[in-house]
């Protein structure tokens, strides 16, 4: 992991550099994908007193995490930014692990059979029942029913054709209609 320390209106002494490297360098154990840590330390003199800001940009594989803390004492600002960055990196790693775990069940439900060269469903896969209104209805009634039930899609028996059709709400706010092809 590469670590760079820069000072704005502040001279970075060896003591400050060693302290920042030791405190902020410990966050490496909370995330495996840290490529670089860019640490920026600055000092501002105001009427109310001196303030020091510690800002850290952690460049990860595919994203960036930023933490900033301000305090009257530079060492306290470094401590606070290290703690803040630690929490953010833990949260980021948990999000990645949750995303990976959510994809695993789908892969477990399907099995490839090399003998028949087909993909077969696992016997533990659940069957989901879909509500089909008992009375046939036309397209306008189906759209109204879709809105009343607050569903994304609704299968229904088309009163005109007698076939099962599906009406769904599109992302642009319009409605889609999937109808079964008519037999000739």
Automatic annotation (TrEMBL):
One of its GO terms (biological process) is negative regulation of translational elongation. Residues 75-102 form a coiled coil. The keyword Lipid biosynthesis does not apply. Required for dimerization of active 70S ribosomes into 100S ribosomes in stationary phase; 100S ribosomes are translationally inactive and sometimes present during exponential growth. Signal peptide: none annotated. HAMAP family: HPF. This is Ribosome hibernation promoting factor. Pfam families: Ribosom_S30AE_C, Ribosomal_S30AE. GO terms for cellular component: cytosolic small ribosomal subunit. The keyword Iron-sulfur does not apply. Residues 127-176 form the Sigma 54 modulation/S30EA ribosomal protein C-terminal domain. It is found in: Cytoplasm. It comes from the Bacteria. Interacts with 100S ribosomes.
